[in-house]
Amino acid sequence: MPATSTASRSRVGHAYKHLKFLSPRARKLLSISFAAGLCFFALLSLSIYVKDPDSIRTRKNEDRSSQRRSLAVSSTGAKRIGRQKGMSVSSGNKPFRLILASHNRLFWYYPGNDSIHVLHEGEGVHYGVFPGEVDNNAQMKTVWNVIRPHNWHPKTSQEFLVQFDAETGREVNRVRIESRFTHDAVRRGDRVYVANTEGGEVQELHFPDMKLVRGMRLFTLKQHVNTLAPLDDGAVWAVLHNLGKSDAVKIDPNADPRPRVVAEVKEVGLKAHGLVFWRGQFVMLDSENGALVAVDPATGAVRHLWQAPQTEDPPKFLKGLCVVDEVAYFGLNVWGPRSDRDSLENNAELAAVDLNTGALLWRRTVQTRGLLNIVAAPGLGEASTYRAMASTGGVAEAGFAPSTTTSDSSTGNAAAITATPHGDGEAAGRTRYLGQETSSSSKQQHQGLKAAGTNQDMGKVARSGKDGGKAKDALALGINDTEVIAATQQLIDMGYRPKTSGRWASGRPRLDLKIKNSRQSWDAGISLPLMQVNIDKLKELVLGMPDEMWSPERQRRENAAVDGRKDNMNKFKPGVEALYMVFSDQSTEHVYRFPYYDYFKSAIEPLLEQIVGKEDVNKVVRLQFARMKPGTEIKPHQDMGGYAKFAHRIHLPVVTNPNVSFQVCPEVERQASLGRRVAATSTKDCLPIPMAEGMVFELNNRVMHLVLNRSNLKRVQMVVDVAEEPRVPRRLKPGTVCNYDHAVMVCPQENVLPDYP
């Protein structure tokens, strides 16, 4: 027998001899304690990760369409759909998950495998879910949630906003709020809005300290404000339950002399809940009637998208709404007396409905252990309960615009409806969305896109030409330069064909954001040459400006400054001077226009209109000049912030030299993804991208890149980040200093002005 085995037996025998000297009663107590400990750890593991015991029974009753997908395919076609029940896969991303908040429990729900992960339970009623801290990769670290006492014989009146670790459920922070029977809490940038239902009030708090900024008492208890949606910058939509026929109203907190309701949409449903902005409409829950509806805010028209069978007994009450990848996720509750709403036996259902077809994808019983109140996806962004989201993160792209456009001042977006005869299986009155037809030229461009496929492979388009495979016409895209064409073709030959999805208003294509944001970001392509522009006026302005305007000291006086980003700049971009004209936080939802924008406006705006089109200039989320001193370098790096995730990076060299080298290094990442060891990145691993003055490129900045300035001049590059949805920028006064706190820009409110009319 091996020595180790003998020694082990010796130790066991030695321990047993000691136990023999214990009394029979002591040995019995010890055995009971040991067994109890095993049971405790078994129960603990089950409470952390629970598989729905009803899932097998429930899945047998699911709609056949759920075997094909659980999330709708977006208009780009970029999403891969797993052919398993309820399975949807975004290439390279974490499993898609939702947070559900009930009358007893806060937990993650995974549609892909119908499982849950409990964060908190047993303390009270949960309402309102929004993200807190994020890490350097824009991944959510903490989540905020309202916990309030049950309104059936409550033992306390105290209500709290509680911050939890998003993975473990560990409590990080707890702030008491002066609210009663809170029914919602949402976040937009550095503001949090709370529905104080008993007080008929919408409270505005400052994020992240949650200090009260103001309370807006606009309603009565009977009106029962229950859902908030800060869709516009500085304005909030609210749903008024009204204990019957419900309304959606728009609040202007900045109205003179006091906050007031400035718009309303009457009779959106009975005891309605939820309001998610999707394609110019409000997706809402007609709760009492068990219906999912779309409301046109311009006309007030209500269309039924899906209806729970009227023959169901007991009937269902809908509550909790989130839209991801064109799919509405919402709760179906069995309505009962208040005393039963936190019962551990009261488990709600969760349904998924394709908004484009009205088809029920699946419907499952979930272990909510109480009335289901909120369905959210805070890991995708702060707006997950009031805007349609993309599973890759952030607000979903607009997709196809409606063919008839009606300006709607109440939403700040185009609300446009075009009804066409519906086909078999479609809900009556459904709306089909057509290609964008804002002008004859854009219509032709869209038809061309449709013919080639929504997700265009630029390499394949090139090979279909008369030249039998030479990529010049399709790839140059307005840059008739042999070096650019050769470099682009080299990348294609290596397997990096540009994949595009959609076009700017100018008609120029753009890379597919969903592929760019996948784990294999290089599959979207590396560089997309767009056009050549005349930069004479801009170059003259840049070279003629006082050199002191580049200094941080002068910018803090005359422009504006953002503190909290110096470490990152020094790490990757030593020797690079930045001059900001437009800046945003990680979410790209909160955009600030800096005072120096006005200095360059006359030269910059005509160029932006050429590149993305006049209609899309309002989608710019960041705009800056980067000046590299002679002999400096921008070290190899990947851009991982929200600006890389939710926007397109466009480069325009303003002052450069042949001895300035812009290089991309996709092979380093691709080899690493295959499990191969890769040494530190060097220039031999990278390929140069020719960039002469006036050439406009979209760069996939999620792929590793670097810049070397081996010339004796100061190289100046204009860098623009453009989202696919419009933004409402705010202006900063000269001398404003903002803090970049946990990826959120916090600026003194007295220094923030609305954008130019």
Automatic annotation (TrEMBL):
<keyword id="KW-0472">Membrane</keyword>
<feature type="region of interest" description="Disordered">
    <location>
        <begin position="57"/>
        <end position="90"/>
    </location>
</feature>
<feature type="compositionally biased region" description="Polar residues">
    <location>
        <begin position="402"/>
        <end position="413"/>
    </location>
</feature>
<comment type="similarity">
    <text>Belongs to the aspartyl/asparaginyl beta-hydroxylase family.</text>
</comment>
<feature type="transmembrane region" description="Helical">
    <location>
        <begin position="29"/>
        <end position="50"/>
    </location>
</feature>
<feature type="domain" description="Aspartyl/asparaginy/proline hydroxylase">
    <location>
        <begin position="607"/>
        <end position="723"/>
    </location>
</feature>
<dbReference type="InterPro" id="IPR027443">
    <property type="entry name" value="IPNS-like_sf"/>
</dbReference>
<keyword id="KW-1133">Transmembrane helix</keyword>
<dbReference type="InterPro" id="IPR015943">
    <property type="entry name" value="WD40/YVTN_repeat-like_dom_sf"/>
</dbReference>
<dbReference type="InterPro" id="IPR007803">
    <property type="entry name" value="Asp/Arg/Pro-Hydrxlase"/>
</dbReference>
<feature type="region of interest" description="Disordered">
    <location>
        <begin position="402"/>
        <end position="469"/>
    </location>
</feature>
<protein>
    <recommendedName>
        <fullName>Aspartyl/asparaginy/proline hydroxylase domain-containing protein</fullName>
    </recommendedName>
</protein>
<feature type="compositionally biased region" description="Polar residues">
    <location>
        <begin position="68"/>
        <end position="77"/>
    </location>
</feature>
<feature type="compositionally biased region" description="Polar residues">
    <location>
        <begin position="436"/>
        <end position="457"/>
    </location>
</feature>
<feature type="compositionally biased region" description="Basic and acidic residues">
    <location>
        <begin position="57"/>
        <end position="66"/>
    </location>
</feature>
<dbReference type="InterPro" id="IPR011047">
    <property type="entry name" value="Quinoprotein_ADH-like_sf"/>
</dbReference>
<keyword id="KW-0812">Transmembrane</keyword>
<dbReference type="Pfam" id="PF05118">
    <property type="entry name" value="Asp_Arg_Hydrox"/>
</dbReference>
